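From the pipeline queue, job 12 of 40. The input is one protein chain; the requested action is below.

Action: predict structure.
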Amino acid sequence: MSDSRTTPIGLAGPESTLRSSSDFAGLAPEIQDQMYRRLGGLGLIYAGAWIANFTYFKLSPHAMGDSGRVTFWATMTALGAGAGIGLYWLCRTRRIPANRFMSFASIFQVAAGLGIVLGLFGFEHLGHTFVTSIGVALGILPQNILSELIEPLDRAGLRLLYMDGVTWTGIWLLAFPLIIPAPLMRTIVTTLATALTVPSVMLLSIWLNGVPETVRPWVGEYILEVTVPTLICGIIAIYSSRVVYRLTRDLSKARQMGSYQLVERIGVGGMGEVWKARHRLLARPAAIKLIRPERLGSDTVSAQSVIRRFEREAQATSGLTSPHTIQLFDFGVANDGTFYYVMELLDGIDLKTLVDREGPMPAERVVHVLQQMCHSLQDAHLSGIVHRDIKPANVFLCRYGADLDFVKVLDFGLVKEEGRATGETQLTVEGIACGTPGYMAPEMISGGGKVGPPADIYAVGCVGYWLLTGQQVFDGSSAMEIIIQHAKDDPVPPSRRTELPVPEALEEIILSCLVKAPDDRPESARELRRRLEGCARSIPAWSEEQAERWWQLHLPKATSQAEGETLPYAEIGAPGGLH
């Protein structure tokens, strides 16, 4: 756990950086997944290209030449298509280990390039056939083609055998490193090896087949015309891959927060984001809350106030031990000013989303939830900490080990420690009041009195009211109207605003929390919890069987995303503001 000092992200250290430039296993999991998908996609494209090429030439009259050439192309197509489809399957099923991915990709690049250039094998005899056909078409006897056609053209500096443009191998060289970028030295080796397959295959063909006299004057220049553009494509590919790989590596490093690796974004708000993450060594899942510097505005004072708010939240939360308080693992500030803190990853849904989606809760379940909230607040108050922003969005109902309906209190971002000077602790932005209008105690609104634990008690009453009725204690067309009602008006009993039964004992507890004078509310979270325990004994209990049925019906595969509809770990809104 970090102390009061903040720890920059991505500073030099063996555990916070990639171990080497070629360490594919050290890249962010999301980037690894993209690379697997890209390599698999290349495999499918390669297979499809072979099949399309074979089909085209098969349908073209005399395109493949004699039966031996047809057999050759059929064999090459089967091998090329099979290799591409096999590669796709290996990537799709993740059969290629992460520590072997780059080696496997390099082998595929060279082997696939070799497969492409094998089409040039026998080029000298294909050239001979082409030149002879032209001679015959011009009325020259085959035995006179050399003296009447080839030699005159050669003396005039003209050729019938030439290459115009870039080969398919050159296109392969350009495309592969951009899709699968690799470290510089690996890219140089594999790119040059792929490019050199072109002259190698052509020279091997000449060595095995010999050079017909009809193309001998031009064969050397032809090899150069094929090889040089291919090598130029390779040089371009090396430079391009170097740029793309650096961007990929930097992006992966940017997704490392201390010892944690960002995996996927699971929430976003006005001030920042929440990401699912994992510990790089322990494989422990976590949630990371990020506050980006560009979200803080240009006002330096306000930006510093926001940073102080989240530092205070991290420091305050780290000292609490109630199992019903969100657990904090780490926090810090990145070099780019991004503030982050790492929390336990919860599996469930916040109370605001739950009631919005499912409607009010039965009374026995409300009691069950409020008791756990009180346990968290009791621990905080005994530590001298006042939450000051208790609301349904800041209370998470989750699976916790074998327990269901386990409450976690979140977002101590407006926390105030009692006994310190206001100037040191009250994290507000000029012109913005602290808290959420529907859950603010009267003493928070007036600003004239001390804001202590009774303010949290009042908010617990507001949350209980919301859970029972699906409505806030006071409604209004504006935040100011709601605030004024909290300061002056008496609440309507919850039993009059819902069709569900509300036990009289529970209603009395809720209304006792909502009285205007702080001293007239339950004297502590411990006392409120004791009253709720008494109420629980007078009504049917919320049983484990009921909880299990509810979770199986409504959240059978609960996640912290709540199927993409829940913003987890509290709303990331304006610091200390009306949100």
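Job complete. Residues 216-254 form the longest helix (39 residues).
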